[in-house]
Amino acid sequence: MRKFLLLGVCLAATTAGIGAAQAELSVKVNGWVGFLAGLSISRTDSENLDRDYDFVSGARLQFDIKNVTDSGLEYGARIRMNNVDRKNGVTVDRTYVYVKGGFGTLTFGDAPYVGADIGYVYAHDTLNSKLGLGASWGDGLDGKFNLFGGSDTFYAVDPTYGIGGLNGKDTKVKYSSPSFSGFSFAIDFTPVAGGKNAAASGHGTGGGTSDHAGPGGINDLTNDATTRYENVVTAGINYANSFDGTSVRLAASAGNGNGVSGNHDYEAYTVGGQVGFANGIAASVNWVHFASTFRADKAIDSITGDISYGTGPFVVSVGYAYTTAEKGNGLSSSFTNGTDLQTNHSVIGSFLYNVAPGLNSFTELAYERNEFRVGRDFEQTSLTTGVVLAF
């Protein structure tokens, strides 16, 4: 009996100790639930469709853990469950720990590449996030319009996007500097990066991530058909400041990785700029240059431009992406027999409205054309609209 009493006292003391230790940590739960209705207005292979409309639902759940010591040292973690829906189940694409202080920020785990942070310059995203949107819902060229129109995403809003073959799920270490009069820099290192479609037919951009991209343990020490690169380093420099109500941002990044399993090396560069005026107008342009991707060591250039206007509960924007690719680039269509992409044109108009705190609606009209050197081109126009509840 005494043993049980002693055990009970010990468990109570331990539980109290854990509670005291955890009392310093703040845990924030946030995310969103979204609904989208889509209409395929026209597309090259429309004769193969049984219907031209449908609904989509989805959600995201994110846990942010944080504490700040008396000395000012901040540390925490993030767990993000993305694609929470009946098709994908739950996809976890962020699991990392960070430590932040006067020295900057160190991040360990599955976090975005520096190329995706600094190399991403898009005015529309800045304004729609102020309404509580984002995460591809009402997100313009970075959004879900291609769910209905059909798109191989032959453009790049940042150097890790589609064409580049990288993914934020890849496990890495990252350093981000503090700001020095508006200037900051960052660098990261990823031992192995891959994609599920790397060994497939080669159609589209071959997105996704590989099991051999951080969580594989000993499996990460050997390459397989899904492994794309090793020893990936991305770095960037950013300048952000405000002058009399006008915000200015300039950014540049570079990335390099060794191709494995017969893949070519990864080499990419970006230069971008964004300006936002006090009257609500914002504009951006971002150039992404791929000197080489896992498909081929052929140059691919993608330029993304956007002009947006936000006031009160409204955001209106128009975005355009243009891509030109050197002959023999390995990019081919998932929807036609088109091979060896020559140029891509993507245009999208977005209208966002904040209905109530946390509740937003969006409507987007998109047009895209893929032109190939061999085979049939692809062209589509689609309309999407929906609501998102953020919490």
From TrEMBL:
Transmembrane segments: none annotated. The keyword Signal applies. Residues 12-371 form the Porin domain. It comes from Inquilinus ginsengisoli. It comes from the Bacteria. This is Porin domain-containing protein. InterPro entries: Gram_neg_porin_domain (IPR033900), Porin_dom_sf (IPR023614). Residues 1-20 form the signal peptide. It holds the Pfam family Porin_4. Coiled coil: none annotated. Keywords: Signal.
